[in-house]
Each structure stands twice: as C-alpha cells, then as structure tokens.
C-alpha cells in the first residue's frame, strides 16, 4: 500500500537540490542571526497577543470585537511599515456578542450553574424560567419520540454522559518518539458514506432549532463536551435569516448531569436563563486582513503566511488563534524592521470566519487562486466545510501560479518542533535545510503527514504548496481549545518568540529561493473508493 | 535515624499474634462473604451519595443544607434499624449559604467572570460596581504599602501568578511502586518556628478583613489557587461577631490574571459584584450524628468509623466527603442488614465542622475521650487546627479506654488499596490479616505512614488507635477537592461499593477481636526539636 509514496519520496530525495540552498549563502546565514536578534531582543509578539486577547477579547466573525481587531491589526501593519495593507470581504452573516448571562437552577434548590449562550442564538427577554425536560436528540429520527412533549419546556437535548478520567497530562510537549510517529504517509480516504453522515450532522443544528420552535419549547440546552466545568458555546447558524427562534445555552457537564439525575429522582428542576446577547447586522461581510513586504520580482510571485484572527466567544481566543495571528504579525514586524528586499513578495494574511467553515481562506482561494463548480444548493456552514473539496473540476485563476508557498499557524502557542510536508515529498529535503539553524531551538523535524481543519487545507486542495508547522501541544487540545480558559495566561512567551523567528526565516527562504517550492499537479476527481466494499446495512443513507 | 522504629517494628512483628486471628474462624470467613453479598448485590451506597449531593447539595456547617443532611442521615439510620441514633452539639457559629451570585467586568469590555462568594462574607446590597486595585497582601507587613489607597475600591488581594502546566494525569490510581513508597516511617517534626508561621497565616484572613474595612474598600477578591476556571470559595470567619464587613469573592485564576494585566496596560477595570448570600443564625451549634450497632460486652467497649458530613459550598461536597459519609452509612446498613451481634459496640459517626478545623471530631474527643489545657486566648479556626495537639498534659476521660479503634474515610471515592498503620507498628500484622480476603479487590497494603488533616488526627493525638484507609486518588487532589466540580458524577460506584465492604469487615473484625487493637501510650509533651539549630535570621518571629 505504501510502495508508491515511498518510491516517490526516494526518487525526489535523490534529486536534491531541487532549489538553491539559501543557507549556504553567507548572506542568508547572517540573515538568520538578524531574525533571531530582532525576534528575541525586540520581540513584540506577546504585546500583540495581549492586546488581541485581554484588551480586544473574543473576536467572533463580524462581532464588534472582530471589527476592532480588523482595524487594530491594520494599524499595526501600518506602524510597522508594511505595504498594500487592506481588507478583503466575503459574504458571512450576522455579528453576535455576549453582554451578560446567567443560568440558575431555581428548584429543587438554588444553584448558580456554569453555562454560556450558544453562538448566534437569540437573547431571552429578561430572565426566562421553565421546567426542564431531558430529551436527547442527535438526529431527526429522534424527533418523533418527543413530539408533543416539549411545549413550555427548556429542552436538554444532549445525552448526560459520564465523567471523564483524564489519564494523560493536560500539558504536554512532544517527545522524539511522538514526533517520529508523525512521519507516516497515509493514502487518502475518500468515503462517500462518511461524507454523507458528516453532511447530515452538519445540518442537524438547524433542523433541531426548527423542531424545538415548532413544538413550542421556550429554550434549549446542550451539555459541554468536556467536563471540569469547561464551556465552549459553539453555534453555526450565523447567516441572516437563519437565526434560531429559541435561546440556547451550553451547560457545564457536571451541572447538566446533575439536572438529568434530579429529573430522574424527583420533579423536573426549574431553570432560570438570562441571556443578554446582541446581534450586529451593520455589515454582513467578513474581512480578511492582508499586508505585504513587496518583492523585487515583477512576475507577481509571492509567498504567504496566514493565521485566523477570528475566535469563539467563551474565552479570549488566545491559543486559538491570537497566538498564530501574533506570530504572523511578529514575523512581518521582524522582516520589515530588518528592511528585507525579497525576490518574491511576502504576504501576511489574517483570516476571518475560520471557526465556522474556513470562510475567509475559502474566499481567498476563490478570489485569487482557483474555483470549483458551485454547490447544487445553499449549504450549511459545516456542510460547506465537509464538501468544499469534493466539487470538481478545479479551474485555476491567473493568480494560482503566483502563490509559491503558504505557511499556516493554528495550533496554539506551543513552540515549533518542525513542519508537516503535507504529502509533498519533494519539499522534505528543502525544509530540512531551512530548519537546520533551528535544531538547537527544538525545531528539526520534517514529517510527511497531511493536516486539515484550518486555513491551509483548501489551498492545498487546489494544488498550492501549503503547509502547517508542528507545534508542541501544551494544554491546547486537553482544555484550552475553544473553551473559556483560552486566555492569554495559557500562552507561552518563549515558544511564541521561537515560532515567529522560524516563520520569518521560512518566509524569507521561500521568497528568495532561486526556484519556487516544488508543487504537485492540480488535483482532479479522485477515484479511490474501495470498489469491492458492500454498503453497510446499518448505514442510514 | 531510623534505627529505633525499625527495631521496634521488628520486635513487634516477632510477637504475633497480638490479637486472635478472626479470619481463622470459619464463622468469620462466612461473614466476609455475607458482607460482600450485601454490599454488592443490595448496595445503597450510590443512592445515599446521590441524595447527599444532588438532592441536598452543599453542606456547609450550620447551613440549611447541612441541617437537612443531619436530619436525613438520622432518618436513614432509623430506617436501617441502628440504635442510639442522636446528634451531639458543639459551639460553631453562623450558618451561611449562596442563593445567587454574579461577578462581571463591565469596563473596559463586558465579561461574565467565573467567581464565587467567599464563605461567611456578607452579601452585597444589590449589585455593587467599583474599580479594582491590585494590592497583593499576604501578611500584615504588606498593609502599609496600600494604606490610604483602597477607599472605594474592589481590592484584588492575591498575587496574579502564572498559568499552570499540569504534567501529571488528572485521574490516577496508585501503582504498586507508589503504594510501596508510603511504607516509610518518619520521626515527628516538632518545629516551633513552623508552628508560629502557620498560626500567623491562620490569623491573617481576619486581620486583612479588618484592614480593608478600615481603609474604606467596598469589596475584595482573591484568586483561585487552581487554574482551569476551578473555584473553591473557602473562608473561615464563621463565628458570630467575626463576620467580615466587606463582601469577598474568589475569582477564577484566568479571570483574575486578566484583570491584573488590564490594570497594568490601561485604566483599572470596573467590576460589578452581585453576591446574594444569606446567614442563618437560628442555631449556633454544629452537630455530629451518631448511630450504633450495640455490642454484647458490658464494659462499654466500642469501635467506631467516621467521616465528615459537612462540605464547602462550591460543589456538592461529593468526593469531600459525601463519598466517605455514604461508605460509613453503607457499612452500617450492611452490618445491620446482616443482623450482626458484635462483642464490642460498633459506632458510626458523621462529623460536622471538619472543613473549618475538625471542630466536630475535636468536640467528640473533648466530650468522650480526653482533654487538653484550654488555650490562653480565643483562637481563629486555623490556629485551633494547627495548635490543638500542642497543649499538654492530656487528661484522659473514663471513655478513653472504651474506644478500641477508630477508622476514618476522607480521601474521596477511590477504592481502598490498603490502610495506614499511622506509626502503630503493632497493628501491621493484624491489619494484614484483616485485608487478606480483599487482595483480589485491590486492597492488600498495610503501610506505616501517619496521615493528618482529617478527623482521626486528634483522636490519634490523645492515644486512640485511629486509622485512615489508603484510597486511589482518582481526580480528587488534581481538580475535585473543594472545587465546584466536586459533584456526584466524579464519584466511582464500583470503588465506593468496595470501600464500604472493606470498612464493614474491618469494623466487625475490630469489634469481635478477642483482645482490642494494640495502642501506644498516651502522648506526653515531645522534646524532639533539633537542640543545635540556629534560628533562621530571615524568619520573622
């Protein structure tokens, strides 16, 4: 199964150098020292992150916080003397933000619950009190069971579940062994059944919201997917005209389970929900922020680094992704302060709408790089995400050839330990060379693995050489990601300085390389489904 | 240094049997099977724990919740046909409970903070708004720096600190290696300097409350000692006449640190505190709950098991200590259901006031077992705890000789892995024998180590053979202990059934043993300070 890629990798490894060796030039070696000096001794990366998190706070796409961040990041790029600073719009929907909220159990005894309004659900009109009903629903087939039983109720729509037994440390750095495991090629898994299932799940939030409203429920509540009182509050019904009729809250797992148990042993508890949230419909467009360090090459060739600036609302969007945004901005500051005059333009992008469906980076692809056929109907946010790369053929735009490399940062504030070659075997030896100076800083590993779920994904899907760095996980996945503890004090300053330095160096190498990074063919419709698989009889298609 | 105890242990080990070997009697072997049957197939331990936690909820000493628990546990003992069911009072102070609370940052941007009123601080009069000042104070010498600067302010009295990097799993069971490390004798460390320092720290809460009131501050806030949004809300000024003048709240570490950083880079944030708490002064006495299975021996000899029923208010007091209380009650139910007629009476005790200073178990000692000279002044709660065992001579009461053994449970819901011999080398071989049937259930280890901090401590200090079991830690210390996630769903049902079974078996063994458990001499004033130590010049005495 792995013969093809290994052979290909071996072939490519034998053909080095595919590009010039920038680190062999004395100038480039000196440039690494200047980057390290600027990024260490005059670092601004934590000041940038602190402003985005503490001062501006959560940056939900199109919210007042995100608007402030869009303005402030452009100001900083101007202050740092970047060029071509502008924003690029795309259709998104409503702004939404939380002013104040409270969820209490009032009977059988008073408890202040830990809860958060679900994004893009409406406010309560003052405090709303009603008994709960525990009515777990995770697909439309479950509706029938609860029809006629929900009127006047606050509906608890999640299964109560059980407490977790976290057997791994919440905070981790990658061992050499763990890094090694990432260097493993996997053939693509193109499974129409899985896709159909994901698409159905992605539609369910809207279908559930409609069902609850039709049944006359007064509000709904979900259980946090993590315990330990962590909250997230994700919601995806952000488009104008799609706002759910009912207020929704996510309740901490411990509190949710207590409600469910109390409903089993006695009268249904009564909740009081006071959700003072606000919509902002002043501008339905989301905006990406762009800034350049112009290149000398007249061809229009450029390299780019990006991170999404938008966040969820539970925390301050620190690890996800003020960290990446601040490192992108710091790389821009470092290179601008050095006065570099690269061959190719170096572009810095701060994306919006990433959390809902990579809207911002999809918009960039569609505006600058390539198009796919339009979908046959309007897709919900999650449907857009799961299906975007399944429409063929790809039609490249003139700008497609100009983007020589894209580097993404969206894995928290952990230090860079290496880079994912993203199934591009041809870049492995080049990246090894580019990482050479940073081994003593902990970054030395180039692995073949492909990563998804953030803004390089759909650039890659149209054939752009687009990469993500390997970062130490810290406590990102275990407790910080999307939760209310995604705050500045979970960011690691030394790690972020290192990340910005390495990113700046990669960008300069990519911009000045004699030949652009090797890229694969523009993808065509794959045909890798197992032709001998029988349909799963339990699969509801 | 360890010659004496090892020699002593060897000597004692060579003199077995110190008591009869109950497990050698066929009757006793059969009794183990009956205990396991009753405690497994008709277990009520989780129903008991669920009522104490979900239904009754937090049980702060003298709060309405604790009053309900005092009544309900006596009802259950009556239902299970125990004898001599009664409560025993002791002086404690005020009841206090939380109806509703909210802490928000209102400027420079709105955030609903995670916070909890500090126990026994007064309510706000509606919502109180004021700017913060970060004024860390941890000893009276710090007051001078802030004098004249606190009027009209909400004073943040803790150091902001830094985020944690939890490098151990939150949920753990003890390995054989870890169990082995517990079997290590330590000579007592009687250090007057340390004691003086602890006593000063114990007084500081009251001194700080007085200082803040004199300075005209409007409220104060502390930082949670754990991050990850965990809260505790401990406070110790529970006595009538000692209530602080100002409302106090504990703020989640992430939120506290954000406030402190914002105050450094801009105008002091404004907080809005709405603390709807209530005092209950209907009865200043705390109460221990007592229930017996009467023994046939006319001497008045008894064995006892106890756990504290009181809790803090952030969670539902599940692991601390509905778990222990439910296992004590379940052992009573099992033995009563079996209709045992023990030689010595078996007594079950549910203590109150443990969380503030082991008030309930101290009261039991003073009422039934032994007295110490009165302190020379009225002591704060923490001072009482640190100094109680330092007053000599001990005067034993007639009941002292009757209490043949005490077993305590207060380490969460983790299964019993063995027992601490608490520096009583003579019981080691006896406990090994008593644990024999339970090796396959995971409980086999007898370790010499002495433990403190809960209700066996001061019985032990007057010469009673008083013990605690070794339990798997689970996530008790890492995140549950005293926090708002100390709820029912962090309890482990299988573990608690095992614990109740082993406790019941130990109690029956202790009650029926031909001779009582070996006990040491009644302690006299120790003199083990290093006579050659120079005073630490930095120590502020």
From TrEMBL, chains A, B:
Residues 517-541 are annotated as: Disordered. SUPFAM superfamilies: Zn-dependent exopeptidases. Residues 288-502 form the Peptidase M28 domain. Gene3D superfamilies: 3.50.30.30, Zn peptidases. Its main location: endoplasmic reticulum. Keywords: Carboxypeptidase, Endoplasmic reticulum, Glycoprotein, Golgi apparatus, Hydrolase, Lysosome, Metal-binding, Metalloprotease, Protease, Secreted, Signal, Zinc, Zymogen. It holds the Pfam family Peptidase_M28. It is found in: Endoplasmic reticulum; Golgi apparatus; Lysosome; Secreted. InterPro entries: CPQ (IPR039866), Peptidase_M28 (IPR007484). Residues 1-20 form the signal peptide. It comes from the Bacteria. Homodimer. The monomeric form is inactive while the homodimer is active. PANTHER family: CARBOXYPEPTIDASE Q (PTHR12053:SF3), PROTEASE FAMILY M28 PLASMA GLUTAMATE CARBOXYPEPTIDASE-RELATED (PTHR12053). This is Carboxypeptidase Q.
């Amino acid at each position: 199964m792995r013969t093809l890629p290994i052979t290909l990798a071996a072939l490519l490894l034998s053909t080095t150098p595919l590009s010039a060796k920038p680190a062999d030039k004395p100038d480039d070696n000196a440039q690494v020292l200047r980057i390290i000096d600027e990024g260490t001794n005059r670092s601004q990366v934590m000041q940038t992150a602190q402003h985005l998190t503490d001062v501006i706070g959560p940056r939900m796409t199109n919210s007042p916080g995100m608007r402030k961040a869009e303005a402030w990041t452009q100001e900083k790029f101007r202050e740092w003397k970047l060029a071509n600073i502008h924003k690029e719009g795309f259709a998104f929907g409503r702004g939404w933000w939380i002013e104040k909220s409270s969820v209490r159990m009032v009977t059988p005894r008073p408890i202040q619950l830990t809860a958060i309004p679900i994004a893009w659900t409406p406010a309560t009109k003052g405090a709303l009190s009603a008994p709960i009903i525990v009515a777990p629903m995770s697909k439309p087939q479950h509706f029938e069971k609860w029809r006629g039983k929900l009127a006047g109720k606050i509906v608890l729509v999640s299964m109560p579940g059980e407490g977790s037994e976290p057997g791994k440390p919440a905070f981790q750095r990658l061992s050499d062994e763990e890094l090694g495991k990432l260097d493993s090629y996997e053939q693509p898994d193109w499974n129409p059944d899985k896709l159909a299932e994901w698409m159905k799940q992605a539609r369910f939030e809207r279908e559930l919201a409609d069902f609850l409203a039709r049944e006359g429920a007064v509000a709904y509540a979900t259980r946090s997917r993590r315990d330990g009182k962590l909250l997230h509050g994700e919601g995806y019904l952000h488009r104008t005209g799609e706002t759910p009729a009912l207020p929704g809250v996510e309740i901490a797992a411990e509190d949710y389970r207590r409600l469910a148990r109390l409903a089993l042993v006695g009268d249904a508890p009564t909740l009081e929900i006071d959700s003072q949230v606000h919509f902002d419909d002043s501008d339905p467009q989301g905006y990406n922020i762009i800034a350049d360090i112009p290149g000398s090459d007249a061809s229009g060739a450029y390299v780019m680094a990006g991170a999404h600036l938008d966040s969820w609302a539970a925390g301050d969007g620190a690890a996800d992704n003020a960290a990446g945004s601040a490192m992108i901005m710091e790389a821009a500051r470092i290179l601008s302060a050095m006065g570099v005059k690269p061959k190719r333009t170096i572009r810095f992008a701060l994306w919006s709408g990433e959390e809902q469906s990579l809207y911002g980076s999809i918009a960039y692809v569609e505006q600058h790089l390539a198009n796919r056929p339009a979908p046959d109907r309007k897709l919900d946010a999650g449907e857009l995400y799961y299906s975007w790369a399944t429409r063929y053929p790809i039609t490249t735009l003139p700008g497609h050839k100009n983007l020589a490399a894209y580097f993404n940062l969206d894995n928290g504030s952990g230090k860079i330990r290496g880079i994912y070659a993203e199934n591009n075997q041809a870049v492995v030896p080049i990246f090894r060379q580019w990482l050479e100076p940073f081994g003593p800083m902990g970054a030395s590993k180039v692995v073949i693995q492909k990563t998804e779920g953030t803004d390089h994904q759909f650039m890659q899907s149209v054939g752009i050489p687009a990469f993500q760095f390997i970062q130490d996980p810290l406590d990102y996945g275990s407790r910080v990601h999307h939760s209310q503890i995604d705050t500045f004090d979970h960011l690691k300053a030394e790690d972020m300085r290192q990340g910005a330095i390495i990113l700046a160096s990669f960008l300069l190498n990519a911009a000045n390389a004699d030949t652009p990074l090797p890229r694969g063919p523009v993808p065509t419709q794959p045909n890798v489904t197992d032709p001998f698989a029988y349909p799963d009889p339990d699969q509801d298609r």
